[in-house]
Structures are given as C-alpha cells and as structure tokens.
Design a protein that fits this description.
By secondary structure, this protein is an alpha/beta fold. The protein contains three helices and five strands. The chain has a five-stranded mixed beta sheet with strand order 1-2-4-3-5.
C-alpha cells in the first residue's frame, strides 16, 4: 500500500513551522559535551557572540568526521538532531569528530534564514563578508583535512529527504 505525503501548505513565503530556543539548545549541547568529555572551543565572532565547536578525539581513529548545522535560522531540525546526538552519546568508537552545533545563532530567534545582520551565511563562504563565516573559516583552516564532512540542512520546501 502506498501512502503519499500530504503537504500542509503553511510554509508559503517563509518557514512557519515549529521554532526552537537556540540558546537553550546550545546550553544543552554544552552540558552534554562537558558531561561526555568533548573538547570545547569558542570561536569569537564579536564582543557579543561566539560560535561553539566541539571535538571528540579517540585513541585509534579510523576516520575524521566534520559535522555542522544551524547555518539557517529557519531550519530547526539540524540543531535539534545534534542536541539529541550529544545527549545520547552513541558515537562510533573509531571516529574523530569535529562538530559545530549552530553556525547562525542570531537567525533562530528571528526564525529566518539569514543572520541578524541580514546575511545568508551559507552563501557567504565565497565572499567572507560576515563575521560568523570569517570566524568559522579561520577555525576550519586550523583543523586537519576531514574524510567526511556533513553539513546538515532542513528543506521544509521539499517532501521527503535527499543528499546534495
């Protein structure tokens, strides 16, 4: 029996689904990271803002994984997923992991794709105009080459899921 997905039609012209309290999510992330022994870095963006980066290093790594999310403030699924992953702490035992749990913390309170400064951070990696992207790129340049990089997004305009 085939079931088709019925679109609710409420995201016309923007995201109008469930929102998250990103500050609470990030506090939960920090708590779980501390509890389970992750190395924690704060990436300075401005006097008022730091981005978080976590690192989990194992004794005998088979691979190096980079995971990030929260680049768009109207995509709550990624930060929520990362919070759950950190809290459950069921990571592969042979993988070094670098994790950025939210790259656009100022966009989430506004429930919009862009940062509070109106910049689509995901599109800014070519131009490096925003302080968030400059801080993230500077941090990335200090890291080793990753074997796999997963940049989690949520596409509320599309049914189902896909890998890009």
């Amino acid at each position: 029996m085939s079931h088709s997905l019925q679109r609710l039609g409420k995201n016309k012209g923007g995201y109008f689904g469930e929102t998250i309290d990103i500050h609470r999510v990030l506090r939960d992330d920090l708590e779980a990271a501390r509890k389970f022994g992750w190395q924690i870095e704060e990436l300075p963006v401005s006097d008022q803002l730091d981005l978080l980066a976590f690192r989990r290093i194992v004794r005998t790594p088979r691979t190096k994984l980079y995971l990030s999310t929260g680049i768009h403030g109207d995509e709550p699924a990624g930060p929520e997923t990362v919070r759950q992953l950190l809290q459950e702490n069921r990571w592969p035992s042979d993988v070094n992991i670098w994790l950025c749990p939210c790259l656009n913390p100022t966009g989430f309170p506004l429930n919009r794709r862009e940062s509070a400064d109106g910049v689509d951070l995901n599109r800014d990696y070519r131009h490096l105009q925003s302080a968030e992207v400059r801080a993230h790129v500077a941090w990335l340049k200090k890291q080793p080459n990753f074997d796999l990089a997963l940049c989690l997004h949520e596409d509320w305009e599309s049914p189902g899921f896909y890998v890009y």
